[in-house]
TrEMBL record:
<feature type="domain" description="Thioredoxin">
    <location>
        <begin position="43"/>
        <end position="184"/>
    </location>
</feature>
<dbReference type="InterPro" id="IPR013766">
    <property type="entry name" value="Thioredoxin_domain"/>
</dbReference>
<keyword id="KW-0676">Redox-active center</keyword>
<dbReference type="InterPro" id="IPR013740">
    <property type="entry name" value="Redoxin"/>
</dbReference>
<dbReference type="InterPro" id="IPR036249">
    <property type="entry name" value="Thioredoxin-like_sf"/>
</dbReference>
<protein>
    <submittedName>
        <fullName>TlpA family protein disulfide reductase</fullName>
    </submittedName>
</protein>
<dbReference type="InterPro" id="IPR050553">
    <property type="entry name" value="Thioredoxin_ResA/DsbE_sf"/>
</dbReference>
<keyword id="KW-0201">Cytochrome c-type biogenesis</keyword>
<dbReference type="InterPro" id="IPR017937">
    <property type="entry name" value="Thioredoxin_CS"/>
</dbReference>
<dbReference type="Pfam" id="PF08534">
    <property type="entry name" value="Redoxin"/>
</dbReference>
Length: 185
């Protein structure tokens, strides 16, 4: 193959890959920051979520069932995800404010145990960080995360029903308003 043909093929390949990446980015962005009130989630997916027992950042097993009856915000995240890390202070502030009002926030890391442990030690959050690993991506899809993006949150009311799912980080006072609506009075 001559040099001119190689350059033409390389240019075509770069253009093709760029087009595919651009399209994928556009499709993903369409799904980011979408909150879905009262989503249709199968009882099976919700049971599977609530049956999880995962190690916390110190390696101790924690069952999600221990928080049944509370408003439960389950946030799927990763240490390598910039929007996830940006959202953490908001979740921490919400946990500190709402803890005595029947709210529990739980972070489930789609990440390595060591990375989650180091993040927890460095950031000293008011809520537990559990180690979920990549095998939980399929569960997030069953819970409404068709784009398989992070962060992804599932908000469960004190009645045990899913009140909302959210792909993308909570912003401004959206979480605050939601917790005001759901928290026991």
């Amino acid at each position: 193959m001559n040099p001119t043909t190689r350059r033409a093929l390389a240019a075509a390949l770069i253009i093709g890959v760029s087009a595919i990446a651009g399209y994928a980015g556009w499709r993903t962005q369409r799904h980011v920051d979408q909150a879905t009130p009262a989503p249709k989630i199968s009882d099976s997916a919700l049971r599977q979520l609530m049956a999880l027992q995962l190690p916390d950042s110190d390696g101790r097993p924690q069952a999600l069932q221990q928080w049944q009856g509370k408003v439960l915000v389950i946030n799927f995240w990763a240490t390598w995800c910039p929007p996830c890390r940006k959202e953490m202070p908001l979740l921490d502030a919400a946990q500190r404010k709402w803890a005595d009002k029947g709210v529990q926030i739980v972070g489930i890391g789609i990440d390595e145990a060591d990375a989650i442990h180091n993040y927890a030690v460095t950031n000293k959050l008011a809520f537990p960080l559990l180690v979920g690993g990549a095998e939980l991506v399929d569960l997030t899809v069953a819970l409404g995360n068709a784009a398989q993006g992070l962060p992804f949150s599932v908000v469960i009311g004190p009645d045990g029903r899913v009140a909302q799912t959210k792909l993308g980080a909570f912003k401004d006072d959206a979480l605050e308003k939601l917790l005001q609506e759901l928290a026991p009075r």
